[in-house]
Design a protein that fits this description.
22 strands; Rossmann fold; 3 domains; six-stranded parallel β-sheet; elongated; alpha/beta; single chain; about 700 residues
């Protein structure tokens, strides 16, 4: 070999041996983390098998990351999809200076920010993971952003067990279609999972061929060796790219790198004696590896090419927080350098969307307008700001997002096909990067598991923002609007699977989700303008499918948590409370009753206004809650009354909704809109008749 080839070979050997020393350091930190955990437990099998891929990635000189400012645009990003390996990643992040090593103590306790699975309450972690299979969709979304300027790469560490999840293959297909050659997935193929640590419940044979047939570049490597994993990562990073995302399948086994068979389980509670035994063996392994490296290093000599390699290795060691101690021109020790915390609070983000309000559509109050058209017209204005992005799942024709955003920039209007969970993960990724993100599908089609995980990550971001010394600051929440099309009776003849009569009740149990039911095209415009102010969090907007009349004037200003009195007289005997298209029926019913001399007020409750609900309850009037669903407002009304400790007078409360005769939730089958109104007693005539009978004491 030529001199330069020999030098490169020696450099690779030295780098590999340094990584092996760092490997021991990280495993020691991980075991100490278990010893000092509040419950002395750890997901040891997956944490140890993931150590070589993770250490190679973070210490192999392959990632461009900024520990001081993890939210800085343009740096490479990492997603730990297999959240069970949090102990390994926490050890790495503490070693790098994302947070103090003291965080590794008392993990999973009430006073700790280090949980059993990772989330953004922990500095450096951008999303919450743990529910398996979902991390790849977010990594894919981050890679989509990384194709823009400034460019960057995205790495995702997956377990082979989670590849049984369907959302994984939604992301695999879409990543290839979008030519995300800046995405690298590392599969920790340890051939085990929770119920059977020796094999997969569902064997994934020929995994390399599976990725390849979806258009991925695949490396199938020995995941127990740093040299092979490093070579594959270098090929991804430095070889010419051809539009294919990369999968590196790291063949290993549960608990690899541990000594005792005790270390091969999924999750273990480790007795102190076992922990100390493993720590002693890991420490001795480090001593042995250090001795081998020192012998190699000293044989390089101090002059010529060998001297150059020595200096390169010293620089590489420094980047790993290792110090090669030299005494009398001879290396005598490789010390671990404990660095101070480097991560600083992220600079605030301005989330306000800039637009020309004069260009927004002006709606004719004499005509009916479809929400899809309003959204399209408005998005042509809002999307002039490059921070607005939209995602649809083969239902863009019902949301209007793609037509509006795509009119401005097709590169910010995505249609992911029939893959709603994947769409939601991609949407989260754009929100993580500071975008005002809009995601849409039929309201019963949103995946509650994905939505719940996103909400957890959002909560942890909020906690990190308000914590003293937290790594996030104002503007680093998630701004995601979920446009839920065809709610209430809007799907009518499409059948029970498509009927959105229960989504608001189901999703109301997910923390931090703001639910809004739209009744009017101008109200929809007001809601969109409110969202564009920024920092509104997770918003679930239910829009009507068919055209609707205009109730509110132009310039309507929306306020979340406020109900709107549309019709009111001092001597009203009755107040009808509704939302969505039900508001139109309520107004018509009020008109019917006025013919009989009955004064009726009407309240639109797009989001729950507890104060107004209680004020109405205390008014002594008959209150009729009429809804085209399973009683979302009605359920919230009961909660409000119960919390206020009022004496409950059921005689003055009447609910008319989609619940069955015994008050239980149900699914609603196909019918025309008028038939559905008749079926549930919600037509204007039926509402009027029911109210008259109630007033007459019948």
């Amino acid at each position: 070999m030529r001199v330069t080839e020999i030098s490169e070979y020696l450099r690779r050997v030295g780098l590999t041996r340094l990584l092996e020393i760092k490997d021991a350091d990280i495993r020691i930190l991980t075991l100490e983390q278990c010893r000092e955990a509040i419950d002395k437990t750890i997901h040891i099998g997956g944490a140890f098998s993931a150590t070589i891929p993770a250490v190679a990635l973070y210490y192999g000189g392959l990632m461009d990351y900024d520990v001081a400012n993890p939210t800085k645009q343009g740096q490479d990003l990492f997603v730990l999809s297999k959240g069970h390996a949090v102990a390994t990643m926490a050890s790495i992040y503490a070693d790098l200076g994302y947070f103090d090593r003291s965080v590794l103590k008392n993990s999973r306790g009430a006073g700790s920010i280090l949980n059993g699975h990772p989330g953004p309450i922990l500095p450096g972690f951008h999303i919450s993971t743990g529910p398996l299979g979902q991390g790849l969709s977010v990594a894919e979304g981050l890679a989509l952003v990384g194709k823009k300027i400034p460019h960057y790469d995205v790495f995702c560490l997956n377990g082979d067990g989670e590849l049984q999840e369907g959302i994984i293959w939604e992301a695999v297909m879409f990543s290839s279609y979008k030519k995300l050659d800046n995405l690298c997935v590392m599969v920790d193929k340890n051939a085990g999972q929770l119920d059977d640590t020796k094999q997969l419940v569902f064997p994934l044979l020929d995994l390399d061929k599976r990725f390849a047939c979806f258009g991925w570049r695949v490396f199938n490597v020995d995941g127990t060796q740093y040299s092979t994993v490093l070579e594959a990562l270098q090929a991804f990073k430095y070889n010419p790219r051809d539009g294919r995302p990369t999968a590196i399948i790291c063949r290993t086994r549960k608990g690899f790198g541990g000594f005792s068979s005790f270390m091969t389980d999924h999750k273990v509670t480790m007795p102190d004696v076992m922990t100390e035994q493993e720590l002693a063996l890991q420490t001795q392994r480090r001593v042995d590896r250090m001795a081998g490296f020192l012998d190699f290093f000293n044989r390089l000599g101090i002059g010529g090419e060998g001297g150059v390699v020595r200096e390169e290795l010293r620089a590489l060691a420094k980047g790993m927080n290792l110090d090669i101690v030299i005494e009398e021109k001879k290396a005598v020790e490789v010390k671990t350098v404990v660095v101070p915390v480097k991560t600083r609070p992220a600079p605030p983000r301005n989330k306000k969307i800039a637009y020309d309000a004069g260009q927004l559509p002006q709606l004719d109050k004499k005509k009916e307008h479809a929400a899809v058209g309003v959204i399209t017209a408005a998005m042509k204005v809002f999307a002039q700001d490059p921070k607005v992005v939209s995602l649809d799942a083969d239902l863009a024709s019902t949301s209007g997002l793609e037509a509006g955003v795509g009119f401005v920039d097709m590169n910010r209007a995505f249609n992911v096909g029939v893959a709603e969970p994947n769409m939601m993960g991609i949407g989260e990724a754009f929100a993580v990067m500071g975008y005002n993100t809009w995601v849409s599908t039929f309201c019963p089609f949103f995946d509650w598991r994905v939505l719940r995980r996103i909400a957890i990550g959002y909560q942890e971001r909020l906690e990190a923002m308000v914590t003293k010394g937290g790594w996030l600051s104002e503007g680093h929440g998630l701004d995601i609007t979920y446009i839920a099309t065809a709610p209430n009776f809007e799907a009518n003849t499409n059948g029970a699977t498509h009927m959105g009569n229960d989504d608001n009740l189901i999703f109301s149990g997910i923390a931090h989700l703001k639910i809004i039911d739209v009744s009017c095209p101008n109200q929809l415009l007001g809601i969109m303008k409110w969202i564009m102010e920024g920092n509104k969090g997770l918003v679930y907007v239910r829009i009507m499918r068919a055209p609707a009349g205009v109730i509110y004037d132009s310039g309507f200003q929306f306020e979340f948590g406020r109900g709107y009195v549309l019709k009111e007289n001092p001597d009203d005997q009755v107040v009808i409370i509704s939302s969505g298209r039900g508001v139109h029926e309520a107004l018509a019913a009020a008109g019917e009753l006025e013919k009989y001399g009955v004064k009726v007020g009407v309240v639109d409750m797009p989001s729950i206004d507890e104060k107004l609900l209680l004020d109405l309850y205390r008014s002594g009037k008959l209150l009729v809650v009429a809804e085209h669903n399973n009683g979302y407002i009605w359920a919230e009304y009961q909660k409000a009354i119960f919390k206020s400790k009022e004496t409950i007078d059921t005689v003055r409360l009447l609910s008319i909704n989609g619940l069955d005769a015994s008050g239980r939730p149900q699914f609603i089958h196909s019918a025309t809109y008028q038939e559905l109104l008749q079926q549930f007693g919600l037509s204007p005539g039926q509402l009027a008749e029911t109210i008259k009978q109630k007033l007459d004491g019948k």
